[in-house]
Batch of 4 targets.
Target 1
Amino acid sequence: MDATSQVPDAHTHLALQSIHELLRAQRRRIRKHSESYRTEGGRKPETAVFTTDLPPAPSGPEILDALPWPALLVAPLRDGEGQARDALYVAQNTASRVYAAERLPSGGLPHWQGTVSLFEQFPSLTATALPGMLTDALRERAPQGPTSIEWVVGTTHGPVRINDQVRVSPCGEHLLITWDRGHRPQMAAAAQNLVRTCWAEWNLGDGGVDPSRGFRRVLGLDGRTPIPTLDELATAVAPESLPDLYRTLYDVILRKRTGSCELRLNQAGPKVVRMTAEPVRIAPGSLVWALRGVLTDVTAEQRRRATAERAEREARRQRERAEAVAEVAGALREAVLPHFQDELAAYGLEATAVYRPDAREAGVGGDWYKARRLPGDRLLVALGDARGHGLAAVTLMAKLRYALAGLAYTDQRVEQLTQWLNELACADGDESTATAIIARYHPEQGLLRWTCAGHPRPVLVRDGRARQLQDPDGGPGLPLGVLPGETYTVADEALRVGDIVLMYSDGLTERRDSDPDLDTQRFLEAAEQCLRGTSPCAGHAALNAYAERIVAELDGPHRSDDATLMVLRRIDTTPSAP
């Protein structure tokens, strides 16, 4: 393996030296132990003397049956060009009969009698590599294979798929065909490839390595690179992985127990392998003669883990930021939104409001409302919805609310206030848009004068029936901040004692992919139903309970925005007789 081209620093050099010395020391122990066996305590072994005659040589069938794997002896038939066009059955061993009994159904093949053509008996073999192997064995007089050959045997019970590792060897004028089940090494290779795993056994006495077929692929080596020894593996490991490699080798070689570590390899592309190793001993309690290790490519796992950790850190940062924004926005909202009690009752009006934040957006949004006394004993009433969510929406909401409070003291008509508020939003930027209902209530007349800037119209509840107020002349105006110079018209509504006016934001009624008219109808039905259930008594608490029932009726998991409902009720301010 290629080590890094950089010159190792002193720490890295010391770590490498520690690993090399650990391996050299074990090599010396093994050699010393081997020498004690060879000398057998200093006594020379006695030479054996044979006085009996050798047994006769085994016959051909006996040699065939001695082979532990299936074997078939055939006589090749050549064509004029020396190619093997067929092969005639001569003999087979016991292992081949056992193989046939295990792989083929009982009675599936006719019994062979006399001279049998191999390719006539098994026609699908002609389309495999076997004919070429027979020809090469005859021509080169050298063994061929092992080669994976897949073919189909036609039996009386149906076709049977065979997958074998086949060898062909010259045997005098005959050819010997041997085979072993090929699916085992193929399945092992496929398993290594699927899970990016390989294994090897490193001989600690002579430095030899016995690897699996997928070893080079897992370590990112080409086919010409020699399999690395443990010393070479240490040289190819990144400096930060050397301490873990040393601890693993120490545990396996000296403590004689299983160890594992993750190794980052010095390559053009980053590669990380997890190594799990165990000691190999000739006898229990004896020296560790070899190290058997399983290596798994965990580079993709490391990338996924790093990506997940980055995502977790980013999610934590975003969550902390959202919590901070929610805290700031919540404090700002508490500071700017009123909490109604009975301060408006002296002017013939009771007011209450219910607000529900959007939990998906850190609990903050752009809904706002206002109801306060103005000079001349008139009341300013407004409800709006600033565009967006979070701190930006709360900031815009605060700007519009405080701007309206200041503009209202100019004693200008409500339609002029709305126009000025629109100019202010337009000057603030393209993102500063909002919808609003802006109204002024005249207690002496019981008159509500209101304008609409792209907002849902207020609802009047009178004598148990709910209806939307009629649009101002010319219809509702554009939302605030859309078009400079927009003019707004006013609508008048005379209120009777006991009348209830509902102003709300669209977050309370909107449903995904729903018809706005159906949303409005659902709101009207909820207002009437909650009134029939328990008609609100006099006082702020009863009016607030009525508002809470309406919100509870309309709210649910479908809501995708913050929601606000402001409820106004005209009351009788005439002193009662004693």
Target 2
Amino acid sequence: MTADFAFSAIAKRSDRRPAAWRRPLIRWLEGIEGGWSLPLLLICFVVAWLTYLSIAYLGSGLHPDVLETWTLGRHFAWGYPKHPPLMGWVAGAWTSLFPLTDWSLHLMAMTNAALALWLVDLITRRFVAGDKRVIVLLLLMLTPAYQFHAQRFNANAVLLAVWPLATYCFLRAFETRNATWAIAAGLTAAIAMLGKYYSVFLLASFALAAISHPQRRAYFTSPSPWISTAAGLVALSPHLHWLAATGAAPFDYALAHAGTDMWTSLHDSAFFLLGLAAAMGVSAVTWITIAGHRIRRLPRDFAAMNPSLKLLYYIAIGTIALPVITSLAVGTDLPSLWALQGLFLFAVLVVCGARHRIERFYTVNATVLVAAFAVVAATIGAPLHALYRNSYGYGEGRGFYHQAAKELTRHWHELTAAPLAVVGGDDGLALAAAFYSPDHPHYQNVMDLPHETATQVGWAALCFRDQTNCLDVMERTAIQAGNFEKREMTLQAELLGLFGGTRNVVAFMVPPRSGLSVTIPPSAVNSDRR
């Protein structure tokens, strides 16, 4: 306790007579309500972590999840075989404006994370002003959700921005019961479902929060919830029609995560909660340091909580409790990664619910901590990561993606002048060939490729030499096709002239019978990553 009061005295003294190095940061903090400080923070965030990603993965390919997302976005559809369509739409829109390069998709991922943080601030500014707004964002920047999780842009990462947007619109719809906000709440809820079906827990939490709130009668007797429901169903109707017409393939993928026994579900649920606690660990310690002895006021602050914050509290509890209850009842997998996009709810609650003032001393210190974390990651962590991966590689073989695509394209054009149109085999290698090959073939499970299409356009498949099952399946498929070539390539990782590990890759190539290729309509290629 003595230490807490000592720090409090230091904080007050620092606020009265700040050190010279603190003054630029204080001027920056004074611009929060002026509207320029937080955009500057988010720009710096994107630049710092784009630098980290560009260095850390130098010489390596993109993560297979990112490549899969790009593959889905190559043609517009109301659904895709494994996930709802939002992530593919975003990637497709992005790559229609930006080049097909690693830095471009890293920028997409970090822009999505920055947008998510900006949307969180939309919620925060409804309850607090000034330093507390930036404290919420700084605490979130100390979690892995907005850098390491965000860089793997997939169905989970796309929810980072969608969940705060849907939450903000729901809060406004509940508070105002205005038709415009009700429609916005319904549309953004539908967008969340189009991101990932896991968002059903967010929507259920909205309903739980509305039922638990003291103003529930006024809300449910107004047109607002029913307008939201109607707007959401209308927005979802094309996807629902797609599900009905195609056999609801994403549900098959989702159900593959169900059916575990009770002990496994208990284990998964425990690690789900521990994983989320660990993700917030650094942020929690930072907040405890900021609050000091004032953390004892938490029960009092909670009792006096703003009614809108209480609504947010019920939502936060629902997003954690409902997945755990469902996992125990149905027996589903429950990785904590699936819930990282909801951590912002707890940061907003803790900071906005605290009724005490935060000394600028602590805000400056938190800013320096976040900046130091990013700088050390980009200047020390990223080069070490790149060197380590160049020597020891990745489980999925990302260090060989560029070379595999280049060599496959070269071998293919030794056989035929036709562009490489379809590629399959190992998921990671095939997705990488689709992205990095100049021909940009379509990724496909070649076993499902119609015989007529295979004959007209040909196909290629890649397997690592140690993937026995992949080799057996692809060789049998190639033999059935008739005319094929099998070639083995030894690839070596390279980082700025420094050679690393090696791995052998086997290519199966079935050239088109005519020697010429035809354009493949999107419907002929099923981008189903199995």
Target 3
Amino acid sequence: MLVAPCTLPSIAELAPDRGCFVGAAEDRCEIFAWDLARGTARRVTDRPGLGTDVADVEPGGEFLWWFDDDPAGRGTWRIQPWAGGPDTPALADTAPALNAGLAMAADGTAAIGLIDERGFSVHLRTPDGQTHTVLTAAGGGELIDVSPDGSLLVVEQETAVRVLDCSGTAVGELPGPLWSPGFRPTAGPPLLLLLAETDDGYGLWTWTRNEGQRSVDWCRFESEASASWTSDGRVLVRHDRNGRSDLFLLDLQRRRRVTLPVPSGTVLDARMQPGDDLHLVRTDTTTPPALWTSSGRRPPGAPDLPPLELPMTLGDRWTAGPDGRIHTLFTAPADRPPPWPTVFLVHGGPFQQDRDAYDPAVVLLTASGFAVARVNYRGSTGYGPAWRNAFTAGVGLPQVADLAAVRADLVGEGLADPARTGLAGWSWGGYLTLLALGTQPEMWQAGAAAYPVADSVAAFRAGTPALRSLDTRLFRGTPDEQPHRYAQASPMTYVDAVRAPVLLVAGSSDVRCPPEQVRRYAQALRARGHTPELLEVDTGHDSRLAEEQATVLTAVVSFLGAHLGGTRLDGHIDARAV
């Protein structure tokens, strides 16, 4: 039986006894309707071999929306009565595409964001079921919100925010770097909340059609924050700093900021539900994510796993680097002395971070005798805008230089065994793993890369519009415009230098890091006398199926155990561990 991922439920703004959530269904995730008054749930979706994990409930609580996608993530929105009944397509004449946002107004207006091979589009569905397209644009984008009265839409494109009326006409062009949590849900003229990056931190702004942008000058944060409105117009802020989270409640009218008490660790998500019912998902390195609510009401079957009692220690280490100190979360076995065989578990992104949060890979590697270094290299979030934007020396190479600096620090302190250090990562972390193996071959004895970018140019050509837009920004152009930058940052460029054993994992339907460029990298290694392990799984960039996740994790931990001298797994990881 799968333990469902811990995510926040959606609750209808105007019918707070109705909601929906992602729950466990045999070996996968499915959507359930939640009757909060009765404490009961009804299963909404049933997709064997796929699962479902994206859904929302209309503000009035009459209908549920869920995204019917394939392993590659392409799909269509479907609508089902909250009490049950047949599904109907939200956009009858629209081809399957990647989900790029859903927003619904109290009057029944809904806006849908999609991405396909042509780019980003936004579609409007009126309360009577009529639909029309209000925006088409090249590249990526995301629909953020629709105003409570249904008159305005807000989208993010690149790092800027655009406000549109329902005809698609831009009424606000707000240059970035900016992000938006959406419109204030209370009555009155639509008021938009914005998060803005400055040279020394992040601040809040508001925007209205008549007054434009106004700074909330009394409230600033030194590193990234995410925000959401409460039903009465206050703002809940989750602030990530140095791998851990703080939570604040802001009253913009009274210029008041209150710190909400949360235990040390990471708040993965938080929302103030109707009735001032605070919902948050909290975790730390030894505690699996769990949903906590101030009212005590939780969906039936919500996981509540206790902290793991494992012989492991967690410490924070800071290493000097060219752009500042590099933060590492260092986990080690408590039942054996150093130096330990050490795995650098490289996070994805690039604009993400490693946190004091539960990760089954950390637990399993530590239980297998490894120390685990989770490095928040340059480009990571949680350390301010200068650190996040430290790409002036190129893409990839500054990040692997940070990994090397931390490795030297751990070896110098007698914590890491220099003859038994390896790398593992998923997505962008897999990319950095391969890049480090090729540019620093003398440092690493093994590397496992799951769903990686192995060839920067090939991944750009075959990727989605959103990822091509990101690459164009990071590399300051396309491969045709900046061939040297792409070559300098591509693992394929350094394949001749690779010495260590390599495990590659490719998803057959992966549109973010397409499988063909991973296969070609494996072929290039074989042509040079290497014998890489290539595991191909029938999934997209990730999987909602517990057994598929467990298969990949088993392969990674077993591979590292075999080549770095830890304890090799003799069997398959139980799907419940992931």
Target 4
Amino acid sequence: MTSESFEILDLVGEAVFVRDFDGRIKAWNKASETLYGYSREAAVGQLADAILRTVYPISDADVEASCLATGHWEGQVKRKSAQGNQMLVHVRLSVQYDLTSKPIYIVETGREAKATNVEPELRLSEARYRNLFQAMAASFWELDFSDVNQRLRALRKSGVVDFRKYFTENPEEIREMMGAARVVDVNDQTVTLFGRGNKEELLGNLKPFWPDESTNAFAEAMLSGIARKPHYWTECKMRRIDGGIFDALFTIAYPPDLSGWTSMVAVIDITERNRAQEMLQRVQSDFAHAARVSMLGELTASIAHEVNQPLTAIAINGEAGLRWLARAEPEINEVRKLTKQIVADARRAADVIARIRSMAAHRAPERNLVSLDEVIREALLFIQHELQSHAATVVHEPSTDLPLVLADRTQLQQVIVNLTVNAMQAMVQSGASQRNITIRTRLADNGRLACVVEDSGPGINSDNFARLFDSFFTTKQHGMGMGLPICRSIVEAHGGYILAENVSPSGGARFSFVLPVPDREPCVRRGRA
């Protein structure tokens, strides 16, 4: 802009400034200096919406689209002066074109909106908000996302459409946006939780409070804002001023299009809650281990039978081999066959012992991708003799092409064994002549994996449904009442749920548990350049 242009604009009584379509100020008259408090030298070359903290009644992208479509836009916007005073400004935007009709500038005329009779109510509302902001027991932050919005606008203009993909390919951009988001104000609880008694050291950018391991959580928060969702929450790690890391429940409420200075964040320290949950999980793991050991005690006869069978076969084949070798002309081929059988029986005995050791081991749960039907087959091998000795028949009906589940193999085996043994014992206790158990797997309607265990017994008494999964509740004469509660805790710890119902009014019990299928595509690859 020429000096003559500035002189002409200075003759206008209203605030007038000119900006290009990147938002950068090209001209700034005297009335703009008076209204907004920025000198011409300080304003020219700056991004208008960044220094004025502009909040439009609609998104800034929609304002620009309206200007390009009609040549103008008019309305009231919220802004902040150089002194930090909030103001309501009535603006009119007009598009200027070059000789080829290409839009090159936006000329804005503005004046402070006159006070209305709602101002006292607005001031009262602001006072209430400030009182709540300070009085809340949670940590509250007031953030300015103006510079973040400018970065997003620039990325859109450069052709970025899929921000999830962009953030995945450019994870360093997330850290840059942390630096662009400014902390405007915090409450006293924030000073206590994050600081060292000095509020000022908390004001600035967000980078110091977000460890690298939580970059993905911040990326998801940004994506929610870009999608114009009203709010977002997650559990993540956050960092105090002294460098200490803690578990946090992070919640953010967004202004329109991330353009305002009043984006609100709440943070709650959930470290103690998570420790309590970890302690509960350890106690549940101890109970599950105790139940497995108790179950092994109940299956002692079956275990002895399982181990004795291959050992007996080894002894018989060994004696036969010795007789073949004792002949005047030893039958080497026969001895070779018997030796192969001995090796196979030894491996069979080792497999039985390995299953027993796995079930009895007291270790932390270890989750891996496993096949649910394979887990069922392994569990049934473990109790095969026990089922046969009680004349119970089990039919396993696996589904084809089921996805894998992220689970602890031993814990899932425990669930299958508990449900199957419970079904067998219920049928034996009732004197049922037909003792049939069917185990089915299928893909549930919600995309999860389901396992159903049905029996041909008397079914579940309607009076017992409410207490069926309560600890120490049992309908068996010598039962502990821990099997079903442990099944529920294991399934719920894996993100699933378990249900009980009767097959029909005439009898038969059905237990179903459902497990989630893991997400194979993480949103943002944390820490990759």
